What does this fold into?
Amino acid sequence: MTAAVGVRERPFAWRKTVDWVAVHSLGLALGLMFTLPIVFVFLTAVMSDGQAFTEDLWPREWHWGNFLEVFERAPLLKYLGNSLLYSSLATAGMLISSIPAAYALAKLRWRGRNVVFLLVVGAMMLPPQVVAVPLYDTWSSLGLTGTLWPLIAPYFLFDAFSIFLLRQFILTIPQSYVDAARVDGCGEFQAMLRIVVPMARPGIAATALFCFLYTWNDYFGPLLYTSEKPDQWTLSLALSTFKGMHHVQWNLAMAVTLLIMVPAVVLFAFAQRSFVKGITFTGVKG
Amino acid sequence: MTATLERVDVVRTAPAKGRSRARTRHRLTVLAFLAPAILGFALFFGYPLIATIGFSFTRYDLINPPEWVGGENYAYMFADPLFRTAVYNTLWFVVVLTAARVVFALGVASVIARLKSGVGLVRTLCYLPSLAPPVAATLVFFLVMRPNEGPLDAFLGWFGIEGPLWFADPVWAKPGIAAVVLWVSGDLMIILLAAILDVPQEQYEAAELDGAGPVRRWWHVTLPSISPVLVFGVVNSIILALQLFTQAVVAGSAASGSADVTGSTKVLGFPENSTLTFPVWLYTQGFRYFDMGYAAAMATVLFVISFAATAVLVQRMRKATHQEQS
It folds into this structure.
């Protein structure tokens, strides 16, 4: 059959070649289009103070020291610590609270399950600005504004996106595995810990990554609660003020812009497959 | 007669009691699994949603107790010229950005889907920018779209085009922000790519036998098959456009060249309020001017609009779950 198709299509082989070249050059152009901006940022980051933001786009001298100098100009380690505190505690809290909720939505049968799931989707879609006023009011009366706790605490109870994503992953685990565990006398909690959690490990990893990245990249939250307290700033918030606050040159600001992306790129490199699968899962049920 | 009834009762209750006890146990188990989520939902969504609507009828500055003012905050929206500007700016993003983002992501995904080799590499390259924090991504474009000296203007110069002032030009600041968002729309690209690759190969083969070329195959086979995912993309982009905040704030403050850029009121919306989106004006009113009542009224409006957009998606998902179950 393949031979027959080959014979029939041979006269059009040149067309296929043209098609191949066209599609692949387009793909290459896309790849370049997406990466070139980062290349320009890198080139600016290693320029001298005087050259950055001039017409000269290629560094005349390579100032690798810029990546170290930024640590002297601003308390970057302090910001890094705050970012790590926010992201890692939020991720840990999310795992504790969201895995059982996702399990209940995916593997337990009960009335109202669909309604609760739709509420989770609704919460996921809600712009954070909608609930900002009363939440700020409450945290302020508790004396916790000016810290990162108003951002971390909710993750220990409820994170809509993570529950949604984990449910999608847990749904793909065959029900028979869970049923077998029940027949063997496992309670639901044990079935979750011993069967579902190990099998959903890639999904859990992807969800944890998304949670870490979301909090790492978050700007609105830290701005809302810590903008008056520079010693509580996260990297993302600090970067937005970097040029103005520390009177540094654009080459250094671009060096920080690159540095702030490093953790995300490293995490992505290690877990690309779960990552891509996770992204696909967010849209699959649309 | 009573005796028979009683006997029937006895016969029935014995297993029924066991069953109902099991059911109660099951319900308690479900409740235990969901307890943190229920508490969290009530504290961080249920309560603040109701409270936002409540605050929207008051004047409140966070220090003095809220004072009831009825519909004054809502009436003020019609008198506030910057409210109109903010609505216009956000509507601009909802319309232009949503259309551009879905079309752009679909285009990129369609190209990647047709690659015979290097799919993984190109996909990674296209997704990479999406890892950048929005603050960083905006600064990246501030560098690339620098008037006169930037790489983009240098590129346009090859064709004899003189670029505008980009982020410093009230006309071009919004398209500049849209470009940032398109650059980081890797999530949607990957979702659409997966959907395109999921289209059964037989459908293409059947269309090919009918003499359909690549364009017609894309239009008549690919597009209808991925339409549910496209709906997701549209709703997702609308929600994204409605809450556009970070890029607008960072672009405004970077372009203004002001030293004080922690969301100071002087630089929000720069230039000429062209980047003053609805959430930016909400934030300014609530957390810079401490007019919490007015901010809550704006939040209520935002809630109603995003709720409508979400309802479309939820309707779709409901249909999908029903099909799945039947």
User: Anything to note?
Assistant: The domain at 80-325 of chain B is CATH 1.10.3720.10 (MetI-like fold). Chain B touches chain A through 111 residues (CB under 8 Å). The first helix of chain B runs from residue 2 to 55.
